[in-house]
Amino acid sequence: MKENILVATDGSHTANKAVEFASEIAAKFGSNLTIGHVLHRRADIDELAHMAEAEHLIKHAAREAPAEYDTPPATMGALLADMQSGAETARLITLIGDELLARAERRARDMGVKNVAQRSVNGKPAKAILDLAEEVGADMVVLGHRGLGAVRTLVQGSVSQKVNQHATCTVVSVR
């Protein structure tokens, strides 16, 4: 069976389903599970806002961000608008990624996975996932069929399609 499973998450609904699927397999067969997240440094503000709002990360990010708030901003767009430098925005994006990874790891451990690692990486999503799979020695990659960039993929092609076409290991796309 698979010894090293990589599951990629962007915080979307299908990515959460992928985390559960990968966790179920890893728990059942005692596989190592690496949860990977590609930081959205070049992402559209709407994608970041959707991720943070859908996962209720705004309060967490506002609490951890260097800016001071009497009350957290109501939307991710408002939070990013309050950030004063590129360094603050980068820190916020990293904090959101860290929280997504932590939540995914908690879910995996709750499902019985013993060996869980987290990795956040930079880059274009498909290439970053492929590179991470190679780095961790993954013999299976699990990812959601559609993530945050669903509309844009109509023109550019989906991350799951690219990973499936170029991976040297088994790829499972969860719907």
Q: Which key phrases capture this entry?
A:
single chain; Universal stress protein; 175 residues; alpha/beta; Rossmann-like_a/b/a_fold; globular; Universal_stress_UspA; Rossmann fold
Count every beta strand, where a strand is a DSSP E run of 2 or more residues.
Answer: 5
Oligomer: single chain
- Proper CATH architecture: 3-Layer(aba) Sandwich
Kindly state the percentage of residues in helix: 40-55%
CATH topology: Rossmann fold
How would you describe the shape? globular
Strand order of the largest sheet: 3-2-1-4-5
Proportion of strand residues: 15-25%
The arrangement of helices and strands along the chain is EHEHHHHEHEHHE
Pfam families: Usp
Organism: Sediminimonas qiaohouensis
Family: Belongs to the universal stress protein A family.
Protein name: Universal stress protein
Structural description of this entry:
There is one protein chain. The protein has 175 residues and is of the alpha/beta class. It has one domain (4-174): Rossmann fold (3-Layer(aba) Sandwich), CATH 3.40.50.620. It has helices at residues 13-29, 45-54, 58-64, 76-82, 86-110, 125-136, 153-156, 159-166, and strands at residues 4-8, 32-38, 116-121, 140-144, 170-174. It has a 5-stranded parallel sheet with strand order 3-2-1-4-5, sandwiched between helices. α1 crosses α5 (86-110) and α6 packs across α8 (159-166). The protein starts with a strand and ends with a strand. Residues 3-175 form the UspA domain. Pfam families: Usp. It comes from Sediminimonas qiaohouensis.
